[in-house]
Each structure stands twice: as C-alpha cells, then as structure tokens.
Amino acid sequence: MQQPAKISVIVSTYNNPQVLGMVLGSLAQQRRGRHCADYEVIVADDGSGAETAALIGRLQAAYPVPLLHAWQPDAGFRLAQSRNNALLQATGDYVVFMDGDCLAPSDFILTHSRLAESGKFVAGARSYIKRRRSVAMMAAGTAGRRIRRFVWFWRALFAQANRPFQLLSLPVNWRRNRNPEQWQKVQTCNLAVWRADVDRVDGFDNTYTGHGLEDSDFALRLLRAGVTRKSGRFASVVLHLWHARPGAMRSPNIERFDSLLTSDRIMPVSGLSYLAVQPSARAAG
C-alpha cells in the first residue's frame, strides 16, 4: 500500500476552546514509528472569538508538529467552507478530517498511515463518551493527556463510552473493502482521503450552510470520481465527547443534496478552487 509522506489533520471548531484544547492535546501525543507519516494540524475555525485564537497561539510555540489556524468570519454555520479554508493551508499529500469534539487515540496518525491506499478514502469510526465521564474530563482539564485505546476499551465495557469493540485494533486488511460504493454514514468526524482526490472533486461545496449533509455530498462526489470507500472500523476510531444537541429541524441542505443525487455531477457548485482564486469570498455570507 502507498504510504503518505505527510498527513494534514484538519480539526473543525467553533467557540469551544476548552474542548478544542483537549482535542489538540490528544493530537500532540501521537505515537511515532517507521510506518507513521509526518503530520501537521490545522484548525478549521468557523468564526470563533479571541479565546480560541489565544489558545492556538499559546500552543503553537511548544507544539510537536506545525499547528495552523484557518479562521473565517462568523456568518452562520459554514462548516464546508471552513474546511476548504483549512485545505488552502494544508501541505500534506493525505488529509484526515476530524471534529473539534473528538479525541484522537495515541495511534490515530499511525493507523491512518497504515490504512492509506491509492484510489480509496477511509471512513473511520467513533465511540461516544458518556455524559458523566465527559463532564468529569472537562472539569479535570485533561488537555495534553495521551488517549490510550486499551484503557478506553475497558472503560467502554464499564459503560463510560459506547461501542467498546470499535476500540479494538484488527488488521489493516480485515474486510476493509465491503460496501466500496456506499456514501451513507460517511462522516467527517473521522475521514481520510488523498489530497489529490480532494482536488479531483474540488473539495467541499461552499454552498452547504447549516448543519448536515456536506460530508455526504463530499463522499458521493468522491465515489463518482472513482475513489472508493475503505472501512476504517475496528482500526481507526475517535472518542466523541458528549454535548447537548439541538432539537430536530429541517436542514437547509436537504434540497442541495437531493439536487446532487438526481444528477451525475462530480464538481461542487462552489468549491475549493473558488476560495483559492477569490480569497475575499471567505468573508462572504
């Protein structure tokens, strides 16, 4: 399998510096080895205030790898465009997307290095940390602690998290190519893709605003471009901290995604290249 030379980890965030500090701390504590690519971390910031910028500034001086901050003005929920902004700063030949409330086990980068395969994107898994444990971790200030997979496997068995068996590590060639054309349940809380394939589909679609379906749009267009899905289950997992969720509402993106489904389109309505040639568009609502 082709091994990445450098991985760009893109972490999305919005006005949650305490949890972002925990996430960045987990990414600073990654195991390294001959199978592990070099990496950088880029925070895709959808308009956070000064406290988030100050946190990143404090961490940058002593962070073990390059830590970059891709910020755009707060003009509503614009996650797709925020990730494209981060991609403009990324220098890796392989990209891993994470959410800013997901902790990375210490073998996260190493595992993605081993799973990488030409012509495929890797859809990883997540385990949800239960509310009581999440609150205790945030109160204790656990930023910078190493997240050990086997420890969390046992904690999950004792109801501190769900999906305990996702925390097991099975061989990288274990049933990885089931459902290679499935875009459903591909989520950018843990998604890896070659940068060349990101560019092939021109990144995320900036027209997606509000919550949901920007990751489905991205995955479907990758599949149409000939990039198939590889399962990262029982190999690559993130630990999702509990947080309150908004009530159910109709996403403004449903019509956008329905339009994609009924077409054979590969390119976004407005993608990465639009921001690259028109930087002022980052400030547009």
From TrEMBL:
What are the Glycosyltransferase 2-like domain coordinates in residue numbering? 8-135
Q: Which Pfam families match?
A: Glyco_transf_7C, Glycos_transf_2
Q: Which domain of life is it from?
A: Bacteria
| Entry keyword set | Glycosyltransferase, Transferase
Q: Which GO terms describe its molecular function?
A: glycosyltransferase activity
Occurrences of domain Galactosyltransferase C-terminal (ranges): 181-228
EC number(s) stated in the UniProt entry for this protein:
2.4.-.-
Signal peptide start and end residues: none
Q: What is this protein called?
A: Glycosyltransferase
Organism of origin? Ferrovibrio xuzhouensis
